[in-house]
Amino acid sequence: MVTSNPYMVNMGPQHPSTHGVLRLRLVLDGEQVLRVEPVLGYLHSSKEKLQEEHTYLQTVPITDRMDYLAAMTNNLGVSLAIEKLAGIQSPPRAECLRVIMSELQRLASHCFAQGVFLQDLGAWGSPLMYFLREREQILDMFEMVCGARLTYNYIRPGGVSQDIPPQFTPAVNSFLDTFPAKLDEYEELLWKNEILRARTVGVGVVSRELAVSAAFSGPMLRASGVQWDLRKQDPYCGYQNYEFDIPVGQTGDCFDRFMVRFYEMRESLKIVRQALDVLPPGEWKAAVPIVIRPPAGEAFQMIESPRGMLGYYLVSDGGANPWRFHVRAPSFINLGALNEMLVGTTMADVVAIVGSIDIVMGEVDR
Amino acid sequence: MTAVMTGPALAEAIQGAFPTAVAEVYGDAVVLDAAALVDVCQFLKDAPDLAFDYMASLTAVDYLDYFEVVYHLLSLGHNRSAVLKLRCYGRKAPHAPSVTSVWKAADFQEREVFDLFGIGFDGHPDLRRIMLFEGFPGHPLRKDFLEFDHRKIAAMASEAE
């Protein structure tokens, strides 16, 4: 009989499939995972402490650096939380622009997630380049509206920093016309691909109970069959006025998570199209003082970011700086059940499963 | 829309089963007695008309006189939210009961609070620092943690490795 001794392998923090600096201490028997211990904190910069020294308006650009692949939704979350705390109402045009930007951001973020996930699975090069090509168009649009491609600081308490330029709407329209055909093409290439299915179907199954108990959110939760999307359940920025569906998976494996993101991209396209059609004229920013001094109290606001429920918990003591600034980071909490997901699988599946969670370490470590 | 369960309504629901568990009610939050916390959480999760099966967020706030641990709960079935709070006194070794047995999501988040606030969670299966390295001096999110020597900490970090 062949016997073997368990041994420990460090995966990361420098590893191409850990999406940044996630480090996993894996105890392996041959190729099988016996135990896993995530080691976090390589990107920890204590942003929550940093926020306490800034005024409320100054907190917004720091949130860009958390989830750097979806900075628009981070800006939106913190802006809504500050508005809730200080009782600010943003004008209708700003609300609509926020919806357009966050859905474009969702498309960009999912494009990146899909491309990198396929790259992790060994589809080297082409899929990532295809998806990055589409993402590039969205980054160009963001560059038009605020000059930045990654850290936008565009959505701010009270509205957005500036109105969209004239060339923005034609750019979005041409993207909306061309992208669905591309999605069809990619789906055809991937949906029935035997290698993709072999690597993902039945791999990393998360049961409905585990997903709820571990407070998974976003595609991680919906792939496990829970129909929960804050855009429907607790709408903000007028999401209740748009028609769209929430794709839900059945088994909660890597393939479902992949497909949920795929279908979400189609729904986002629908929302952008509707929002552009009803974009009202008028002001895009409410009159907000440079130094906001909200009354003493607290506010907790969650939004649906591409990675899940992004929450901001702000406590004010009546001063110009937040007394406490907590971020409920979806990437961080989605990592909470790695043991259940990874133990018993093989080393190669670890790469697929971690890739399917779609983490951003800037947000995990904050 | 997610309906917010107001403090008085939540306190009433809790007091039906645990008459002495509620220490204070203010706004939309209920401050609980530490001894009853885990039982109350289990009750809130299991009672069919409450069913707070999803713990959205667990964090803490330093109010100088005491630390407040804040639990944001969601009921996915009823689309309802609630806020629980717990006060921990003393700055030397404040501690709170762990709710990891109720919601798995508490695991990492309690470790984060332990790491950054120094609040111990009794009954946590694996209470270690999560963001910072073992041996880091102090707890950064406390209000009395003000300045430190970056070079000294960098040297300590490489030693800890």
- Proportion of strand residues of chain A: 5-15%
CATH class wording of chain B: Alpha Beta
User: Superfamily at the CATH H level of chain A?
Assistant: Cytochrome-c3 Hydrogenase, chain B
CATH-level-2 architecture of chain A: Orthogonal Bundle
What is the CATH architecture assignment of chain B?
2-Layer Sandwich
**Total tally of structural domains of chain A:** 1
Shape of chain A: globular
- The ordered H/E elements of chain B are EHEEHEEEEHEH
Largest sheet of chain A: 3 strands, antiparallel
Structural class of chain A: alpha+beta
Number of individual domains of chain B:
1
Query: By CATH's scheme, which homologous superfamily of chain B applies?
Result: NADH:ubiquinone oxidoreductase Nqo5 subunit
**Named CATH topology of chain A:** Cytochrome-c3 Hydrogenase, chain B
Helicity of chain A, in percent? 40-55%
Radius of gyration of chain B (Å): 17 Å
Largest interface (CB within 8 Å) is between: A-B, 34 and 32 residues
Number of helices of chain B: 4
Provide the β-strand percentage band of chain B.
25-35%
The pLDDT mean of chain A sits at 89
| Low-confidence runs of at least 5 consecutive residues of chain B | none
Write a brief caption for the model.
The complex is a heterodimer of chains A (366) and B (161). Chain A has helices at residues 47-51, 56-64, 71-86, 92-120, 126-146, 168-191, 194-200, 208-213, 219-222, 230-233, 254-278, 330-334, 338-342, 347-357, 361-365, and strands at residues 7-11, 23-29, 32-39, 155-156, 159-160, 297-305, 308-316, 324-328.
